[in-house]
Amino acid sequence: MKKIISILLGAILLCAGQVSAQKSVVKGKPTVKDRFPKKNGNMMFSKSVSALQFVYDNQVKTDTVYFFNASKEKFSLALGVLPVHITAELSTDNLKSGDEGYVIIHYDAAKKKDYGIILDRVILNTNDTLVPKKMIAITVSIEPYFAPMTPADSARAPKAKISETTFDYDTITVGDTVNRTVQLVNEGESELKILSAKPNCACIKLAPLTKKSLAKGESMPLSFSFNSVGMNGPDNHKIIIYSNSPFNSKLEVVMKGVVVPKQQ
Predict the structure, then answer these.
(1) Which of 85, 120, 165, 198 could form a disulfide with 111 if both were Cys (CB 3.0 to 4.6 A apart)?
(2) Across the chain, what does the average pLDDT equal?
(3) For 24-56, how does the pLDDT look when each residue is reduced to its tens digit (9 = 90+)?
(4) Domain of 193: which CATH number?
(5) Does 86 reside within a domain?
């Protein structure tokens, strides 16, 4: 019995020692690879994508991307031409070997004048012989902003409605094209403004909108076609419409079905 107790006490003391040893382990400082995991030519970056995520159309979002010169050469740095909705500042225009710097990116959603998921980029021009142009991708989802409303404001607001939100084309053969038209209606009391209407896939072609706004009770057609070239199996794509309708500013028309191969 004493032997068993002795063994158990020894095991407990051993476990306690291991836990104590684990607690005493101190993590070292982050390495260059830890801080700059994205390699691009002879430079290393903290990230290759600036994911700004959700942004209202009255906001400016800011992000910082850090970089490191992993070569033995001195690099000159300059920003490429930027679109009107993006501004950026470099911490330096010369980066010595082993030095680090950063670029601050400002994204003005109001100046973009678009909605939904958007891809942009910032180009960093360098004299790196491996990859002279460094691309930093930008992803953002822009949504309309609505100020707080009183009950009276809500009663007067526009209200968008789609006559058919899901179109099931059943089963078609690859290469077939399917056409459809739905109605966009303003069931509210004030003018409905269409801010954006676009498909989420190049396989859907949306006809040009006949109007940019709808008065109370007015409607207009949304005509589109789905091209199944290159598709196979169950398929699901959509058209996304943004408007100034405060309670349903984002509407979707979903096209779904099954695309089967041509029979030999």
Answers:
(1) 85
(2) 91
(3) 445 688 999 999 999 999 999 999 999 999 999
(4) 2.60.40.10
(5) yes
**Count, residues in the chain:** 264
Q: Taking 50 as the threshold, does the pLDDT of residue 209 lie above it?
A: yes
Alpha-helical (H) ranges within 133-223 are 151-156
pLDDT value of residue 249:
96
3-state helix, strand, coil in the chain (%, to 5): 15, 50, 35
pTM listed for this prediction: 0.81
Q: Which of 182, 236, 231, 180 is nearest to 205 (CA)?
A: 180
Helices within 25-83 (DSSP H only): 32-35
DSSP state of 246: T
pLDDT digits (tens, 9 = 90+) for 122-159: 999 999 999 999 999 999 999 999 999 999 999 999 99
CA dihedral 165, 168, 174, 179 (to 10 degrees): -50
Residue 225 belongs to what domain range? 151-260
Domain count for the chain, please give it.
Answer: 2
